[in-house]
Structures
1.
Amino acid sequence: VQLQASGGGSVQAGGSLRLSCVAPGITLSFFAVGWYRQAPGKQHEAISCMSESFETTSYADSVKGRFTISRDNAKNTVTLQMNSLKPEDTAVYYCNTVPLRSWGQGTQVTVSS
């Protein structure tokens, strides 16, 4: 069973996007959940994570202060609000549990300068 990300698109630098993650068949409240991204030719990069109890969040230095992770266990969803986007944020974005399971559907984010 895989998590599915959506909400990507093409924006200009400085713009915002809100990504959503759904998990059919998985009760996300049992897991810490993270957002990851993969730029062309690079490995997956962990950019944000939230514990199952909402108590702990973490962000990569590259997105700290610009991205916000949130979750709604009642709706079984996780979101990533991305503000002040930069061209270097261009990548395919994925959500996944912690520990990782197989990668599901990602969503493309393209930021133009």
2.
Amino acid sequence: VQLVESGGGLVQAGGSLRLSCAASGSTFRIKGMGWYRQAPGKQRELVAAITNGGGSTNYVDSVKGRFTISRDNAKNTMYLQMNSLKPEDTAVYYCNAWSLSGIDYWGKGTLVTVSS
């Protein structure tokens, strides 16, 4: 499974961005997907996750009500709509997929910078 993120960039506080993660290869192995982020000097944290059918989602408390995770299974693509962005959302955002066998797949990341 290969994962490619896009949509990062520089935005002012209060603005919005939409991240995309396109999956290719043996996508039938994917059980669920999620977005992680890692800010400078901090550990990588799970931001949001979604099950294969999209029926279950969860979010870290700091983004609840501002971020929305979604999937388009026909396009093998996952999205993260980020609204009301804050400077503390600045990080490299990584796409993650986990398989039925327990293997994790990762994208290379996309940088989101929120200016105050």
